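Deliverable D4.2, example record:
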Amino acid sequence: MAAMAAAAVPSDRPPLPWRARLLVGAVSVLHSASLRRDGTVNRFLLSLFDRVVPPNPAPDAAGVASSDHAVSDDLRVRMFFPGAAARDGGGDHLPVVVYFHGGGFVFHSVASAQFDALCRRFASAIPAVVASVDFRLAPEHGFPAPYDDGKAALRWVLAGAGGALPSPPATVFVAGDSAGGNVAHHVVARTPSSVSGLIALQPFFAGETPTASEQRLRDAPFGSPERISWLWRAFLPPGATRDHEAANVPAALRRDAERRRAFPPTMVCVGGWDAHQDRQRDYADALRAAGGAEEVVVAEFPDAIHAFYIFDDLADSKRLLTEVTAFVNRRRLLVLHILELAVADITVCFTVSLARLHSHNFSFDLI
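Output generated by the structure prediction step:
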């Protein structure tokens, strides 16, 4: 696995290729320009630059097919089916990853090109069926709308995804990046026993007291304190501070021992150029406290900026796919082994019961 210890920032600027650097700069300018002082968002401006892609019912070059599904009038999920699952229109025996995209609770959708592509890569690499959730966005729909949407989408998947899956899945993981990582945490906190594992990619947390990394990396990509403050004001309830349980998750976990103990195995991805890294490590520590989660894996990427995984040509993006694949498949095999043992126990009990019935000369007439 990746290094487990906190990594020092190696230089005064992140090691990004020029194309990625230009894209980060353009996205930062666009996001800032779309956030109005009155707390609203210029959705029209965003729509001009947020490239969206339709689903593809026929498998693409990597063998992944996708389709959009309505969970309710206000909620849709884009499903990604890899390989044989794409050809057969199902996903029996594959793990399912319920995914929540990033964007500060305010930007993007499941159709945004970078998140569509990211889910395709996960579907192909693991392989897994990926269910990307199009949760409602702030400020039009603030706390707790994304969490409610996430819980509804997870229940829909667990029930068989409205027929999109051949049967209710045996192993379901919940994952998300940035603000989507925050949503993933809160969805799992509401339904922990239904989930085989949580994957939090640079989850977006906050607090009223700035951390060392937030102060040190205020000028790093996507680290602007002013923009981060705007996003939290747009999402949190009126009058709430960033110590609210939705934002300051490590503190909330330490206050709620019962919730901490209920968490499934968790993977936390941390980037050395991410302003939020201190809170992400603190989150992992809070989950570990008092045996909070069965397993907590921290995957460190010392050279990674926030949202590095949307750049598929970066070496760290490729390594992240390997890390996530290993985590999912290790947990999936363990869950399937436990299920096999349970079935074996039931079979033994049934056989013993039948033997006892026969030993007492009981007989049954079939009608």
